[in-house]
Design brief:
The chain has one domain. It contains 9 helices and no strands. Helix content is 77%, strand content 0%. InterPro entries: DUF347. It comes from Chroococcidiopsis thermalis (strain PCC 7203). Keywords: Membrane, Plasmid, Transmembrane, Transmembrane helix.
């Protein structure tokens, strides 16, 4: 019963694949809406924020994990998290160093309140509305923090998108090695990897979408967003069908 009531997916290779793809879409889709369509950061933020609240309302109505609903929230949270950081930096003049510090502190506060209230931060125990609320607030902050960290390393420091992706990818690999070979705490490893996959995916998104003169491949935000959204959609459909597939019944050889 506890497993059936869990509102989030199991942490598998599919989970991490879609998560990284979603973070890439968060970066490129935000740029596509705000810059390519010329909606501006403010209007785009209000539209995406409203959509996020709408799908979150539906998500909280559910009593178990539903792939389409869950991953739609993740994609929109990725876009909104990106827009939060972009607006603070581009419109309000807040430095990336400051946003990194502020979002890190905010995320630490959320984790502290969550643990004091529920005595766990485990991914597999998101089985109440209260825990899910903490979970989604933390997710949104990881996207905002990841955007800030990725932009700081790739752009402000002058490292470049490819080199930034390599740095974040190496850190994720180190966490995976610590978990599998050095008995690193599973909850700590999960959240560290979750935070780092955001700037990793964002750096990949920028690398693919930005013009060649800026160090990118020049695919554009439209092409990159559509490509990764198509892959996400295909994987979510596959996972949805897989969940609905009835289990094979054992053969009764006595009859």
């Amino acid at each position: 019963m506890r497993k059936m009531l869990n509102r989030v997916p199991e942490v598998t290779i599919y989970f991490w694949t879609i998560k990284i793809l979603a973070t890439t879409v968060g970066e490129t889709a935000a740029d596509f809406l705000a810059l390519t369509l010329n909606l501006g950061l403010g209007v785009t933020s209000y539209i995406m924020g409203g959509l996020l609240l709408f799908v979150l309302f539906n998500q909280f109505r559910l009593k178990r994990y539903v792939p389409v609903s869950y991953w739609l929230v993740v994609v929109l949270a990725s876009i909104v998290g990106t827009l939060i950081t972009d607006r603070l930096v581009d419109e309000f003049g807040v430095s990336l160093m400051t946003t990194n510090i502020v979002f890190s502190i905010a995320l630490l506060v959320v984790f502290t309140l969550w643990y004091l209230s529920e005595k766990t931060l485990a991914m597999h125990s998101i089985n109440t509305a209260k825990r899910e609320l903490y979970y989604w607030v933390a997710i949104l902050l990881t996207f905002a923090l990841g955007t800030s960290t990725g932009d700081y390393l790739a752009e402000a420091s002058g490292l470049g998108y490819a080199q930034a992706a390599l740095v974040f990818g190496t850190l994720i690999a180190a966490i995976a090695a610590g978990y599998y070979y050095l008995q690193m705490n599973a909850v700590l490893a999960f959240w560290l990897a979750y935070i780092l996959t955001r700037p990793f995916g964002a750096s990949i998104g920028d690398l693919l979408s930005q013009p060649t003169k800026n160090g990118g491949f020049g695919w554009g935000t439209t092409g990159t967003s559509m490509l990764f959204l198509s892959i996400i959609t295909s994987l979510v459909i596959y996972l949805s069908l897989k969940r609905k597939k009835p289990a094979l019944q054992p053969i009764d050889r006595q009859n």
